[in-house]
Structure formats: structure tokens, C-alpha cells
Amino acid sequence: MSTVSTKPYLLRAIWEWCVDQGFTPYLATLVDDNTRVPPGYARDGQIVLNLSPDATGQLKMDNEYISFQGRFGGVAHSLVIPVANVIAIYARENGQGMAFEPEFDAEDEGSEEQAEAGDADVDEAEDMAGVTAALQREQAEAPPRPPRGSHLKVIK
Fold this sequence. Notes:
The protein is of the alpha+beta class.
């Protein structure tokens, strides 16, 4: 019997904590061929998504995928995010949450190259304090807007 990763359970727990506290849960994820997001919204192979109940419809967070309906530019889209691609989940208001290292399938072609190329990005995700400060500065300067690309840099 194989064990299931703790990652999907942690994602659901942090999402629930954010909602219970009145915070806006944000999800940062890598975008690849297995990720379904609206074209043109990912930046540098990443996207940050608002997972609040007000911003999503039919949110389902299972052990393999996160799926939901979201609006981008006023147009409804179905999104599917592999749990393996999630690099962070955090509260927009204070940056509290958790960062994860990207998972790569050993059978994938170029996995080593992907892992090496992603090493610099993963280092950035570990420095949540810097990300939090950047998010707080951005929020202070501009009113909330729909997610348009990545505001969270992945750290090694």
C-alpha cells in the first residue's frame, strides 16, 4: 500500500484556516502541460490564484488535483491545478502560509533539467518573509485586482 503525500492535506488545512480567519487564500503554482489555466495569465511559468469562496465556484481540493471555476477579465473559466505543481498557499493579507518544493516525476523526460532549472526558483519560495513584504507593498500601492500572473517568486 502506498502512502499519500501530506501536501494535499496541508493545502486544505491552510485554505480552511485562511477562510476561518477572514483572510484571502492565495495559491501559487507552476504552470505546465498538466495545468489548465486561462491562456495569457501565467507569467514565467507560474500563476497566483485567489481561492477565496467569493472568487471560486465548485472548488474541489482532492489528493491529486485542485479544480474550480474562476473569472478572468469577466469570463468564466474552469481551472485544474495538479497538487504536485503547487509551490505555496498563503493568506494575502499577512503572507502566512506554507511553501512547497515542486515535485517532478522521475519518468518525465528532462526531469533532471527541470529540477536543476527550478532550483533557483525553489530557493526563492523558502524566503516567505521577502515575499510577504513585497505583497504588502503591492497591496498598499494598488487596490485588489484579479490575479494576472505571479506575484510570488518561487525560491530554492
